[in-house]
């Protein structure tokens, strides 16, 4: 999702106001978070999994080039950022949120690239008016050019939809988005408080008869444009069975919002939560289920790498090979 709407705007204008339906399968499911690292999680052999989970793969490589002293110094600064409420402790929840943010770094980088295009007055916030003018200004000034646009992704329909999404992302209700709020606006599928909007927008996209549900024909039509008289591919027949057997949980022949949520936002194992619990358990000396900066720095080589820890791992590997 995220920039999907913006892409549709461009395509809509370039094609003279009409979007052809896809002939290939459209993917609606928001895929669960991938594993935090490609490495095996074997602390008795290496902390590389923990390093990549805690820092991200690229940053972990950077730490590998540092001395132990440099690694500890940088880790101390990271701990200060993880401690959201500044109470001097890092909880499992704060650590989980940090790991999730690190793993989604590309999203924040994406937002950083477009930030200046919208933050016109340079107050480090993007107001709804700034976003509306940047995105819909031409439409608002020249509405007569869009009167014949009937596609669901026309500016006329997307404007109130975007405003509704913006207000949901704007947690403090000041009609101006911080970087975190703007990230939630552009990438709602990544934020728990935006999940209802993801479900609602999916329903609105697919529900052609506007009865508040998605029936089987609407479900299939969203994935496949059926040629008159032509046979349905095997995967479409399989999707009809999926709809009846698994998507339609209450067997009433249609999907409500909760069933759509089960379909597009499947529950999965929370890798970040598991890693956060692991790091706290392994570093929590006084067993109060939260970490001080000293506890983290005492166990620094589990959180971050350095030339020294890698050298030690290399010795272990070389010894095992002998």
Automatic annotation (TrEMBL):
Q: Name one GO cellular component term.
A: endoplasmic reticulum
Signal sequence residues? 1-20
| Any one GO molecular-function label of the UniProt entry | calcium ion binding
InterPro entries in the record: EF-hand-dom_pair (IPR011992), EF_Hand_1_Ca_BS (IPR018247), EF_hand_dom (IPR002048), Rcn1 (IPR027241)
For this protein, the record's Gene3D superfamilies field holds: EF-hand (1.10.238.10)
Q: Which Pfam families match?
A: EF-hand_5, EF-hand_7
Q: Where is the EF-hand domain?
A: 70-105, 106-141, 194-229
| UniProt KW Cell cycle keyword | no
Q: What domain of life does the UniProt record list for this protein's source?
A: Eukaryota
Keywords of the record, alphabetical order, are: Calcium, Endoplasmic reticulum, Metal-binding, Repeat, Signal
Keyword Amino-acid biosynthesis annotated:
no
**Cellular localisation:** Endoplasmic reticulum
The text of the family note is: Belongs to the CREC family.
The name this protein goes by in its record: EF-hand domain-containing protein
Q: Which organism is it from?
A: Gopherus agassizii (Agassiz's desert tortoise)
Taxonomic lineage from the root: Eukaryota, Metazoa, Chordata, Craniata, Vertebrata
């Amino acid at each position: 999702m995220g920039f999907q709407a913006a892409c549709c705007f461009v395509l809509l204008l370039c094609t003279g106001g009409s979007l052809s339906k896809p002939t290939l399968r459209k993917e609606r499911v928001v895929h669960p978070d991938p594993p935090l690292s490609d490495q095996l999680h074997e602390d008795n052999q290496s902390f590389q999994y923990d390093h990549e989970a805690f820092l991200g793969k690229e940053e972990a490589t950077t730490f590998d080039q540092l001395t132990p002293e440099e690694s500890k110094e940088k880790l101390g600064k990271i701990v200060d950022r993880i401690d959201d409420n500044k109470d001097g402790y890092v909880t499992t929840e704060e650590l989980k949120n940090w790991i999730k943010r690190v793993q989604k770094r590309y999203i924040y980088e994406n937002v950083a690239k477009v930030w200046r295009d919208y933050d016109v007055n340079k107050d480090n916030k993007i107001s709804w008016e700034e976003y509306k003018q940047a995105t819909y200004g031409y439409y608002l000034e020249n509405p007569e050019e869009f009167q014949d646009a009937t596609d669901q992704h026309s500016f006329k329909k997307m404007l109130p939809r975007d405003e509704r999404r913006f207000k949901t992302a704007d947690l403090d209700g000041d009609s101006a988005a911080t970087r975190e709020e703007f990230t939630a606006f552009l990438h709602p599928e990544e934020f728990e408080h935006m999940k209802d909007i993801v479900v609602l927008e999916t329903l609105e996209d697919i529900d052609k008869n506007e009865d508040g549900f998605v029936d089987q024909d609407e479900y299939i039509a969203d994935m496949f444009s059926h040629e008159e008289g032509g046979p349905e591919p095997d995967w479409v027949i399989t999707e009809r069975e999926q709809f009846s057997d698994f998507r339609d949980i209450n067997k009433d022949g249609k999907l409500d919002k909760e069933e759509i949520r089960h379909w597009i936002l499947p529950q999965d194992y929370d890798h970040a939560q598991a890693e956060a619990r692991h790091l706290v358990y392994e570093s929590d000396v006084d067993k109060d289920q939260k970490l001080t900066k000293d506890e983290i720095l005492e166990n620094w080589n589990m959180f971050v790498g350095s030339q020294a820890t890698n050298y030690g791992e290399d010795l272990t590997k070389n010894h095992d090979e002998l």
